[in-house]
Design brief:
- The complex is a heterodimer of chains A (386) and B (90).
- Chain A has 386 residues and is an alpha/beta fold.
- The model of chain A has no long low-confidence stretch (mean pLDDT 94).
- Chain A folds into 2 domains: 115 residues, Response regulator (Rossmann fold); 228 residues.
- In chain A, the strands form 3 sheets. In chain A, strands 10-11-9-8-12-13-14 form a 7-stranded parallel sheet, with helices on both faces. In chain A, strands 4-3-5-6 form a 4-stranded parallel sheet, sandwiched between helices. A 3-stranded antiparallel sheet of chain A has the order 2-1-7, with no helix packed on it.
- Chain B has 90 residues and is mainly β.
- Chain B has one domain: Archaeosine Trna-guanine Transglycosylase, Chain: A, domain 4, CATH 2.30.130.
- Chain B has a 4-stranded antiparallel sheet with strand order 1-2-5-8, with no helix packed on it.
- The chains are: A alpha/beta (386), B mainly beta (90).
- Chains A and B meet through helix 7 and helix 10 of A and strand 7 of B.
Chain lengths: 386, 90
């Protein structure tokens, strides 16, 4: 059984990192979170712009996203900072996180008597969490505990023939070792429905695949109007792609060749292992939050134009589609799949990516981690705020 | 040696040109095979690497991307003019 050196969590999951997260339940608490993070640089602040002012499905979606994100096994302990009058209340969020039995505490600014008093208490809790979680020792953990999110962003004409097929080889390897990979960005599956349906483990999953792709195609037309052609029509004919299916095949190849065992909603925790499809947007940063909330300990991100973005609690491995971009942005890129255009085989680069992944899951930092490419959490949102 | 075309899946009967290839020029696909272009193949476009009969499948990424509209020879440029795409199947 293949293993990596990871952190066991009380709920039976395993992390590849050991972060203490400080999260606001609502954007109004970001300032206090920032004060705590400034005083205790070892914590990871999870800044975001949501938590209130929304109703219906978005409220449920953001609640699920925040809860599941904090349950991510890369997080050892969580401090939740609430305001007091927000819709996503911090006590509820804290209670949900406590179900994992990881250490979690909650401070509410309106109850503590303002920003400074909350920050002072928060700093003390954060220091204690950092000290306590620092004592957790790494142990050998089977690869089957791993969930890897598959992402492409800033694609170019080569993404589909170099970087994405290399990731497909990694995906097959993870699944052969009993682990899980999650393919998302439903927009980029348009035109490949029958191919993905054929890979579904049963008829019910095939039906779900058909539904999410056709819904996404409708939605793309609604949102983009005449511009939808750029996404759902054959794309750039001058680029040699003859159909939308051919374009999308270059995206879904990230998920290799193994059967599809479940279709999940954005930010939902999969119940199955193997290849999972998460219904979600093509916007990279929204997509990565959904993958982290689904429990991915690692994201593998292919890019052609060169996107440096990482994610606060989840390492991101960047796979460049051309040598030219890799050399231009070497500080941000981990693997050069562009070498395939110079004579290396897809299999060789796939194996290089597997070797890199094995190092990263046992602790080696990715370029996005070194560069602290953490940013702010973006979340999938269906409607406007009110 | 640097190839000037790439085949993605062993099942594929097309490769993608990595540069503009002129009619009569040699196409090297990794170390696997060498063929001759019988038409101009523009950069990033597809070229047939096997004989493909009219009505037969055109395969890229190991998947069917369309049917040949006419008999295609090794070294032929393949694009919308000689592929039939069954949109219903999308």
């Amino acid at each position: 059984m293949r293993t990596f050196m990871g952190y066991e969590r009380p709920d039976g999951s395993a992390g590849i990192r050991n972060h203490v997260a400080v999260i606001p339940s609502v954007s109004c608490a970001n300032g206090v979170v920032a004060q705590i993070a400034k005083a205790v640089p070892d914590v990871v602040p999870l800044y975001h712009a949501n938590g209130c002012g929304r109703g219906g499905s978005d409220l449920l979606l953001h609640n699920l996203t925040l809860q599941n994100l904090c349950k991510n096994p890369n997080i050892a302990a969580v401090l939740v900072i609430g305001l007091g009058c927000e819709v996503i209340n911090s006590q509820g969020l804290t209670l949900a996180i406590s179900l994992t039995k990881k250490p979690v505490e909650n401070l509410i600014i309106q109850q503590e008597g303002g920003s400074q008093k909350t920050a002072a208490k928060g700093i003390a809790i954060a220091r204690r969490f950092v000290e306590e979680t620092g004592k957790i020792k790494k142990k050998p953990v089977p690869i089957e505990m791993l969930k890897i999110g598959l992402e492409c962003g800033g694609s170019d004409a080569f993404s589909g023939i170099t970087a994405n097929p290399s990731v497909g080889i990694l995906s097959d390897w993870i699944v052969e070792n009993g682990g899980t990979t999650i393919l998302t960005e439903t927009t980029e599956m348009i035109g490949t429905s029958h191919i993905l349906e054929r890979r579904a483990k049963n008829q019910e999953i095939a039906g779900r695949i058909r539904t999410i792709i056709s819904e996404q195609e409708k939605k793309t037309h609604e949102v983009l109007g005449p511009l939808a052609k750029a996404v759902v029509a054959p794309g750039n004919m001058d680029g040699g792609l003859s159909s939308i299916r051919e374009k999308s095949l270059g995206c879904i190849i990230k998920a290799g060749s193994k059967p599809i065992s479940q279709v999940i909603e954005y930010a939902e925790t999969p119940a199955e292992k193997g290849v999972i499809i998460m219904d979600g947007p093509g916007y990279d940063t929204d997509s990565m939050t959904g993958l982290a909330a689904a429990g991915c300990q690692l994201i593998v991100f292919t890019t052609g134009r060169g996107n440096p973005i990482g994610f606060p609690v989840v390492p991101v491995i960047k796979v460049a589609s051309t040598t030219k971009m890799f050399k231009n942005m070497e500080d941000d890129m981990d693997i050069n799949a562009g070498a395939i255009l110079e004579g290396r085989s897809i299999q060789e680069i796939g194996e290089e990516l597997i070797a890199k992944t094995e190092k990263v899951i046992s602790g080696e930092q990715t370029k996005a981690e070194i560069n602290e490419q953490n940013g702010i959490l973006c979340m999938y949102t269906r409607n406007t705020s009110f | 040696m640097k190839p000037n075309a790439i085949r993605i899946d062993p099942e594929d009967n097309v490769a993608m040109a990595l540069e503009d290839i002129k009619k009569g020029e040699t196409i090297d696909i990794s170390e696997e095979m060498s063929i001759t272009a019988i038409t101009d193949i523009p950069f990033s476009h597809k070229v047939a690497i096997k004989e493909i009969r009219a009505g037969s499948d055109i395969v890229k990424f190991g998947e069917i991307i369309g049917e040949a509209k006419e008999d295609l020879k090794v070294g032929d440029w393949i694009h919308t003019h000689n592929i039939i795409i069954d949109e219903e199947q999308l």
